[in-house]
Design a protein that fits this description.
four-stranded antiparallel beta sheet
């Protein structure tokens, strides 16, 4: 009895994870974060090479789409952590440099953008 209860609980938790999807607000925030590079003059470093805003946006969109298919992203914070912070191939942190600002990790850059978005949204 105890074993079947644990099995039922595990199945219920697994099915909840499998069907998880970002809310409309989370999807909006993630889309705005991805677009935030487009309107900037910032460059995005990935595995030692620098890329312009359009290439960076395209790369991050592909990673986000992959995470969506795998049901691995529910929030903007998870997008930053799982897609926009480091290379899934090398494990190296992504970096961003913008004119007139110190170079920083992309996790910090996107985190600041998310905070600013949330402060503007009522």
């Amino acid at each position: 009895m105890k074993h079947s209860l644990l099995l039922a609980l595990a199945l219920a938790l697994a099915s909840g994870v499998a069907s998880a999807a970002p809310s409309a607000d989370a999807r909006r925030e993630i889309a705005q974060l991805i677009r935030s590079l487009d309107g900037s003059q910032c460059q995005f470093q990935r595995n030692g090479s620098w890329y312009g805003p359009a290439d960076a946006r395209s790369h991050l969109q592909r990673k986000y789409d992959y995470l969506l298919k795998k049901n691995m992203v529910d929030t903007a914070e998870q997008f930053i952590e799982r897609a926009a912070s480091q290379s899934s191939m090398s494990g190296k942190a992504y970096r961003i440099r913008c004119p007139g600002q110190p170079e920083q990790t992309s996790a910090a850059w996107f985190g600041a953008r998310l905070q600013a978005l949330r402060q503007r949204t009522p």
